[in-house]
Amino acid sequence: MKNKKLSLGIALLPILILVVLLSYNVLVYGDNALGGSNQFILLLGAAIAGIVGFYYKVSYKFMIDKVAENLQSVTGALLILLFVGALAGTWLISGIIPAMIYYGLQILHPSIFLPACIIICAIISLATGSSWTTSATVGIALIGIGKVLGIPVGMVAGAVISGAYFGDKLSPLSDTTNLAPAMAGGELFSHIRYMTYTTVPSIVITIIVFTILSLTQNTTGAADTESLMLAIEEKFTITPFLFIVPAVVILLIVKKSPPLIALLIGSLLGGVFALLFQSKILLEITEASVLSFEVGYRAIMDSMTVSTEITTTNALLNDLFTSGGMEGMLGTIWLIICAMVFGGIMDAIGALERISSALLNWAQTTFQLFASTVASCLAINLTASDQYLSIVIPGKMFSKAYKDRKLAPENLSRTLEDSGTVTSVLIPWNTCGAYQSGVLGVGVGEYFIYAIFNWLSPFMTLLFAALNIKIKALKEQ
């Protein structure tokens, strides 16, 4: 570009306006902001950036070409999201997700109630990819059990949230886990593997602390999980053989198979195991009386593509046994596309390059770059009040800075999750904080100190940066 160079203030102007608009939008729409209004606000932000570009003589064609380039870079991520939706659907109707919950509930015992809460919620969130669903279902049940045992609700809520967000962070079914590498320019399974370096130590410390806390509690009742397990047994055929499917997918991931292949095989195997073990479920969701090839085909195809709901005798499980299929991923895909439009225009007008150079001038060390990323994610969570935006905006703002510093995109995507995804639940006016406190019936102030995993994660990522542990360099093309 031979155009006049943008000042830092002008480069930041579209981002500042975007944050203000998003903050107001989330205030108006609350949890429903992802239904489309946030996406349109991102397009408005792109329009504002475009106006700045026109003023600085950047051509319309150049801006559109940059948007196309940006969209092309996330093609793989968008396809992965669709396959994630398909896999979640077949893993539900095959009984894989219910089996994970069933066996997870068996480890619940009053003497280890708090660490068991973490492990159960981690398993369920890992299986479903949703911390929200985990809290609103099993989380509510655990809060009730904790009350019976005489354990403070804030303590139980902290254990539930810590486990739920651990599973959410590492689950390939999670929208934020897919969103972070898409914004940073990385790859899903590489992002998950790299995230374990900071996430596993954080959850281990959390479990140790809760084990100590559990030993200090005098329990007065018994943990009744029989009703939940009975409801699962009545609806599904539960057998350890169901774990063959996730074992195959994990093996493919370990062998570094392309994510699309691993997810496709996992989805298809889920459908096969549904035919083998859950014929009653297939008949129920298709409202048929006899299982034929057509009925099985329709049940599996519907579970992959559209919303599937399986009703049990326990109301708490009904929300958990719901999958949106590929259709359920369209909201996140829409968000990524609109974020890419905004990022493409910002790149075309030279704003991202200007911000990146300013960050590199200020952040003389790798640690300072990581620290500024963490601070930006926290700031977006505090102002725009949404965990998705705390990934999208810093992700696009910092991606070039990390690249210029010769740092692999996994560094940025991990930091986005460690500081954006998990801290959102610690802010009362954030959509996540408001949701979790609402469904669990426990105020953010009550569970804040006990949500150890959530506030420990950003410190862990900064510690790794300060000590230069597992800081991956960018490979030369």
Q: What order do the helices and strands come in, and which of them pair?
A:
Blueprint: H1 8-29, H2 37-55, H3 60-73, H4 75-93, H5 96-105, H6 113-128, H7 131-149, H8 153-170, H9 175-184, H10 188-215, H11 226-235, H12 244-254, H13 259-277, H14 279-286, H15 293-305, E1 308-309, H16 315-320, E2 322-323, H17 330-348, H18 351-362, H19 366-383, H20 387-404, H21 409-421, H22 431-440, H23 444-447, H24 452-466
Antiparallel strand pairs: 1-2
Helix pairs in contact: 1-2, 1-18, 2-17, 3-17, 4-9, 4-13, 4-15, 5-6, 5-11, 6-7, 6-8, 6-10, 7-8, 7-22, 8-10, 9-17, 9-20, 9-21, 10-21, 10-24, 12-13, 14-15, 17-20, 18-20, 19-20, 19-21, 19-24, 20-21, 21-24
What does the model show?
The protein has 477 residues and is mostly helical. The chain has 2 domains: 8-60 and 335-466, no CATH class; 77-328, no CATH class. The protein has 24 helices and 2 strands. It has helices at 8-29, 37-55, 60-73, 75-93, 96-105, 113-128, 131-149, 153-170, 175-184, 188-215, 226-235, 244-254, 259-277, 279-286, 293-305, 315-320, 330-348, 351-362, 366-383, 387-404, 409-421, 431-440, 444-447, 452-466; strands at 308-309, 322-323. Strands 1-2 form a two-stranded antiparallel sheet.
Helix content: over 70%
Number of strands: 2
| Uncertain stretches of 5 or more adjacent residues | none
For the sheet with most strands, the description reads: 2 strands, antiparallel
